[in-house]
Design a protein that fits this description.
The complex is a heterodimer. By secondary structure, chain A is mainly α. Chain A is built from 14 helices and no strands. Classes of the chains: A mainly alpha, B mainly alpha. Chains A and B meet through helix 4, helix 6, helix 7, helix 8 and helix 9 of A and helix 1, helix 2 and helix 3 of B.
C-alpha cells in the first residue's frame, strides 16, 4: 500500500496506463452493463426502433435506467408534447447525476474545463463510485475516463445481441445477474467507510429513500435519500 | 433510415433532447460547485454524497427484491470487507441470490 502511494505522487493525471487501469477497475460491472444493454436492445426492437436508432440513443443518452423507462413511454408520434414528456422522464431518472458531478468538484475541479467537461459526458453511477474510491490520486482523471470508455463501448455493443436475438436470451434472474449492480454498489460502501459517525448520513439516506419509495411512485427516492444524507453529512463533524 | 420520413426527424429531435438533458445533469452539478465557495460545511455535504447515493439506491431495491436480493447485497458487503475485491464481491452477491432462488425462497 505504501509503495503504491509513493508511486502515485509521480503519476500524471493522464496516461495510457491510467486509462487501462480505469477500464480494469470497472470490469466487475461490465457483465451487468452488457446484460442491461441487451435488455434495452430487446425492448427497443419491440418498440419498432431501427438498430441504428437504438444505438444512436445508447451512444448519445448513455443512461441505462433512463433509456429503459423512456421505452416504456415511447410515443407513436413525436409531437412537441411527447418529446417534452420524454425529456422530463429522462431528467427525473438521471437527476442523481447532478449530485455525483457536484461530489466530484473537490477532486476534479483543478482540471481545465476542456478536459473535465468531455470526461463528465461518460460519467455513470458505477464509474463515479469507482473513482470516488480513488479520490485524491493523481491519476484520477485517467481512471475516470478509462472506466467511462470501457463502459460506453460495453453499453453500445451489448444492445446488439439484445436487438437481434430478442427474447431468446436467458432470464437475468437465473444466474443472479440482476444482482450485479446492487452488489457492486453496496460493496463500494466498504472502501468509503470512514467510521460510524461518517456513516450516519448513509443511514438517514437509506431510511428516507425507503420511505419515499413507499409513498411516491417513480425514481424520486434516490435523489430524496441522497440529499437527506448529504444534508446530514454537513452537520457531522470530524470531532465533537 | 430514410431522411424523408418525418418520424425519423422526430426521433432525432427526441434523442438529442434526451441526450442534452442528460449531459446537462452530468455536467451541471460539477459546474455549479465551481461557482460557489467550497466551505468546510459544503465539503462535508459532498463527502457524504457517494455513500448516501449508494444506500438510497440499493436499500429500496434490496427490500423490494426480497430475501434473494437482501442476502445478495449482504454477501457482497461481507466479501468486500474480507477480500477487498469488487469482482469477488459481485460474484458472491450473484451466487448468494442464485442459491436463495434455487432453494425456492426467491
Amino acid at each position: 500500500m505504501d509503495k503504491a502511494q509513493h508511486d502515485d505522487a509521480a503519476r500524471p493525471p493522464w496516461s495510457v496506463g491510467g486509462l487501462i487501469q480505469g477500464a480494469r477497475l470497472i470490469t466487475p460491472v461490465l457483465p451487468g452493463v452488457f446484460l442491461y444493454a441487451t435488455a434495452f436492445g430487446t425492448v427497443a426492437a419491440q418498440k419498432g426502433l431501427t438498430l441504428w436508432q437504438a444505438e444512436t440513443m445508447s451512444g448519445l443518452v448513455y443512461a441505462g435506467a433512463a433509456q429503459l423507462v423512456a421505452m416504456q413511454v415511447w410515443p407513436d408520434h413525436f409531437t412537441t408534447a411527447a418529446i417534452l414528456a420524454l425529456v422530463a422522464v429522462t431528467a427525473t431518472v438521471n437527476a442523481r447525476l447532478l449530485l455525483m458531478g457536484a461530489a466530484l468538484r473537490p477532486w476534479l475541479g483543478h482540471l481545465p474545463a476542456w478536459q473535465a467537461y468531455p470526461t463528465l459526458y461518460l460519467m455513470t453511477d458505477s464509474t463515479f463510485l469507482v473513482i470516488m474510491r480513488r479520490r485524491g490520486e493523481a491519476a484520477m482523471p485517467a481512471l475516470f475516463l478509462g472506466s467511462g470508455i470501457a463502459m460506453w463501448f460495453t453499453w453500445i455493443i451489448g444492445a446488439l445481441p439484445g436487438y437481434l436475438l430478442g427474447s431468446t436470451l436467458p432470464e437475468p434472474q437465473r444466474f443472479g445477474l440482476d444482482l450485479v449492480f446492487p452488489a457492486f454498489f453496496s460493496a463500494m460502501l466498504v472502501p468509503l467507510w470512514r467510521g460510524r459517525r461518517r456513516a450516519l448520513p448513509w443511514v438517514v439516506s437509506g431510511a428516507v429513500a425507503i420511505a419515499v419509495n413507499r409513498l411516491f411512485p417513480g425514481w424520486w427516492f434516490i435523489i430524496a435519500g441522497s440529499i437527506a444524507g448529504s444534508v446530514t453529512g454537513g452537520f457531522v463533524h470530524e470531532r465533537e | 433510415m430514410s431522411a424523408n420520413d418525418p418520424a425519423d426527424w422526430g426521433f432525432l429531435a427526441a434523442v438529442l433532447a434526451m441526450g442534452v438533458a442528460t449531459y446537462l445533469l452530468r455536467a451541471g452539478g460539477f459546474w455549479l460547485m465551481g461557482h460557489v465557495p467550497l466551505t468546510a460545511h459544503l465539503r462535508r455535504m459532498l463527502e457524504a454524497l457517494p455513500g448516501s447515493i449508494v444506500t438510497a439506491t440499493v436499500l429500496p431495491i434490496a427490500l423490494k427484491g426480497g430475501p434473494a436480493a437482501m442476502l445478495g447485497v449482504a454477501a457482497a458487503v461481507a466479501v468486500m470487507i474480507v477480500r477487498r475485491s469488487e469482482l469477488l464481491a459481485v460474484l458472491a452477491g450473484m451466487a448468494a441470490a442464485a442459491l436463495v432462488r434455487l432453494a425456492g425462497f426467491g
